[in-house]
């Protein structure tokens, strides 16, 4: 229990020390480009993984039941468009923040 009290006291001291460090004259870091690049990379990578899973599942379902080709292809194209739109929305937000 005493270790937990020491932990909370240390966290409290650090929280009150932050405004004291803000008095310095050092220039602020601009982390927006780094965050935008990481966000775009993350969105593109995860959307690529989602598209791969969608196409893989569509191929598997076509192999099991070829008679439902039209319905599967309609939903596949619609789903891929929605997945790709997430990446494009992220790109728009990146350009708006930069």
How would you characterize this protein structure?
- The protein has 98 residues and is mostly helical.
- The chain has a domain at 31-98: F1FO ATP Synthase.
- The protein is 84% helix and 0% strand.
- The protein has three helices and no strands.
- It has helices spanning 2-21, 32-64, 69-97.
- Helix 2 (32-64) packs antiparallel against helix 3 (69-97).
- The radius of gyration is 24 Å and the shape is elongated.
- The chain starts with a helix and ends with a helix.
- The mean pLDDT is 85.
Average pLDDT rating: 85
Helix content: over 70%
Q: What's the gyration radius in Å?
A: 24 Å
Segments where pLDDT lies below 50 for 5+ residues? none
Q: Number of DSSP strands?
A: 0
- CATH H-tier superfamily of the domain at 31-98: F1F0 ATP synthase subunit C
- What fraction of the residues are assigned to beta strands by DSSP? under 5%
Shape: elongated
CATH second-level architecture of the domain at 31-98: Up-down Bundle
What's the CATH C level of the domain at 31-98?
Answer: Mainly Alpha
Q: Element order, helices and strands? A: HHH
Helix-and-strand structural type? mainly alpha
The count of helical stretches stands at: 3
CATH fold name of the domain at 31-98: F1FO ATP Synthase
Give the distance, in angstroms, between the N- and C-terminal Cα atoms: 47 Å
Largest sheet: none
């Amino acid at each position: 229990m005493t270790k937990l009290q020491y932990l909370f006291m240390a966290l409290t001291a650090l929280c009150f020390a932050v405004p004291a460090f803000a008095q310095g004259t050092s220039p602020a870091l601009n982390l927006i480009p780094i965050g935008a690049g990481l966000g775009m990379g993350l969105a593109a990578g995860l959307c690529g993984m989602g598209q791969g899973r969608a196409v893989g599942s569509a191929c598997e379902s076509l192999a099991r039941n070829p008679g439902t080709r039209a319905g599967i292809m309609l939903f596949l194209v619609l789903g891929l468009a929605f997945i790709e739109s997430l990446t494009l929305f992220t790109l728009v937000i990146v350009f708006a923040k930069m």
